[in-house]
Structures are given as C-alpha cells and as structure tokens.
Design a protein that fits this description.
This protein is of the alpha/beta class. It has 8 helices and 9 strands. It has 2 domains: about 220 residues, Alpha-Beta Complex (Spore Coat Polysaccharide Biosynthesis Protein SpsA, Chain A); about 60 residues, no CATH class. About 30% of the residues lie in helices and about 15% in strands. Strands 3-2-1-4-7-6-8 form a 7-stranded mixed sheet. Strands 5-9 form a two-stranded antiparallel ribbon. Helix 1 links the parallel strand 1 and strand 2. Helix 4 packs across helix 6. The N and C termini lie far apart (about 45 Å).
C-alpha cells in the first residue's frame, strides 16, 4: 500500500524544555527529504519557539498552555487534530536516521504500525501466571482494562488480543478509518489518568502506571474494532532507515547515555546540516552536539548518566 507524504501527518508533543528535541525530530525528517506535514502539541512556547519550528515549513502548532496533566496523556488528543487520511505519532525525544516515509504507514488501513514487545522483553513484574500460554499481562490488569474500555465503547473484545504490551513512542494508523479508536483512547486517558503532571510513569496507578502506553495497550486489546497490530515493526530493521527513541536521561541535546551514544554521529550530523542550511537554532549550539566534542562526551557518559543534572554543565 502506498500513502502519499501529504496524506500522513507526523504528530509529536512537548513543552518548552523539549524544544531542542522537537527541532531535531523535524530537522532529521527534512534532512532526509521527508515532506510530511508536522503537527506539534506545544506547551509554554513563546513566539520565537514557534518560529523555530514553523521555519521548517508545513509545521502547525496545537497550543496546550494551561494543561495540568502530563503531556504524554494528550497524544491521542493532538493526533485527532490532524486533517490527513493517516497520522503517525513520534515521541519528541527521537529522530529519523534516513527517509522513512514509505515505512511509516501501516501496510493496510485496517492495521496499526506499532511495536509489540517480545516475550523476552516483558518485565518480570509484568508477567502473567506461571505456565500461562495466553498472556504475559497480569489477569487483574486485563480485567480492569476490559471493563474500562467497555464503559466507553459500549462493549469490548471477549479476550485480550496480545500476549505482550507494546511501546507508546511510535504508532501510525488510518485516521479516516480509526478516528473512533483514537476517540476512545482519548476518553480512556481522561477517565483513568491523573489530572496533574506526574511525568511519564506513575507507579501509584495499579492498572495504568505507564499512562499513555497503558491506555493504548488497553484499547488495542479490547476496543471491538481496534486496528490490528501489523506483524512486522519496520522502524528498527535498517540502520539507514530507523526511528531512534532516546528513552533515558540526559537527552542528547543535554548530554549522552551509553545507549544513545551509538547514534552520536548521525544525530550531530542533523544539527550540522541545519546550521549549514542557515536554520535558526533553539539556542546556542550545545557542546554535546558538536562533532569535535565526541571524545569528551564519551568520557563523560558515566557522570552524565548517573547524575543527569550534571549534563547541563556540559551542554
């Protein structure tokens, strides 16, 4: 299935502290020749911050000023503001290593491009009963997910569809075909997630501690006409065509972790290209994004990883 770049909006979100991350996500796409429109949910952005992003062209801002809850709880809300046939969610602490336009959409309008974890990846604290061959998601969690989805959708699937959970950092689906699915996901988040900023994880929530990730997994498992997860996740196969998500702190525009440092050259090449093209940067170029500082950044990784606040001294 071929989807035109103009028919697929890439959506992301962040507050002013993630301006660099959003800038780099869009810059990586444009450097690679990707022409998709971007839709950015933005909190506490001033006029200059908006200009930094809209200078790339075909970038629209959805203002989220005054929102009290964690922005990760608003993914579905911002996705619903898109006006294209397809919509792709990408976390703002991420980037593309090449032109992935053809990889983004699902293979079928009936599917969602979403990464389910392998059986080996599932945390020991998130496993089902010993000997279970049905699901590694605990039964008590599945029961609550099923109940909550049914209250919104009117009914639910009888059994969980998937044995493992999936990552909430990326997904792509047909907005035209699955708008109702996004609306149910959005409503579920409003009902079960805190109306305050708790970050990206709230361990006090027994059934939804991973916030948006927990809720989208609940919906994929139990919304009756939810899109099917396509069999192969394509964004992590080809080194030249990856969606790279930086899951830990510090973020690359602040400093480097050992895991993230594998992509130092590719990430720094994006900002070097943006500078060469004359684009306005979010701030003075951080030392951690200068190619000539690669050796120093690698040496400082243990300190920046153990004490992320120290990363600010090196950015």
């Amino acid at each position: 299935m071929s989807v035109s770049t103009s028919d697929n909006t890439i959506v992301t979100i962040g507050d002013i502290n993630y301006l660099w991350g959003i800038f780099m996500l869009i810059a990586s796409a444009r450097k690679a020749g990707m022409e998709e429109p971007f839709l950015v949910g933005a909190k506490d952005f001033d006029a200059r911050a908006e200009r930094i992003l809209t200078q790339w062209g075909n970038v629209k801002i959805v203002r989220l000023d005054g929102v009290k809850r964690s922005l990760t709880c608003l993914k579905s809300f911002v996705m619903l503001q898109a006006e294209t046939e397809y919509v792709t969610w990408a976390d703002s602490d991420a980037f593309f290593t090449g032109n992935v336009s053809k990889l983004l959409p699902p293979e079928s309008p009936e599917e969602i491009h979403f990464r389910l974890r392998s059986l080996q990846e599932m945390s020991p604290t998130f496993r089902g009963p010993l000997g279970s061959d049905e699901s590694l998601i605990p039964e008590n969690i599945l029961n609550v997910w099923k109940r909550d989805v049914a209250e919104i959708a009117g009914n639910s699937a009888e059994r969980a569809r998937y044995a493992t959970t999936g990552s909430g950092c990326f997904c792509a689906l047909s907005l035209k075909r699955h708008r109702r699915f996004l609306e149910i996901w959005n409503e579920l988040q409003h009902r079960v997630l805190p109306d305050r900023n708790v970050g990206v994880v709230d361990k006090s929530l027994k059934y939804y501690h991973q916030l948006d990730e927990s809720t989208i997994n609940a919906c994929l498992n139990f919304v009756p006409d939810a899109p099917r997860v396509q069999k192969v996740f394509k964004m992590d196969k080809d080194p030249e065509h990856l969606f790279v998500h930086f899951i830990a702190r510090p973020k690359p525009w602040q400093g480097w972790t050992k895991r993230a440092f594998r992509f130092f050259d590719e990430y720094v090449a994006v900002v070097a290209w943006a500078v060469a093209q004359g684009y306005e940067l979010p701030s003075k170029l951080p030392d951690c994004l200068k190619a000539e500082n690669k050796g120093r950044m690698k040496f400082l990784i243990p300190w920046m990883t153990l004490k992320p606040k120290l990363a600010k001294l090196f950015s």
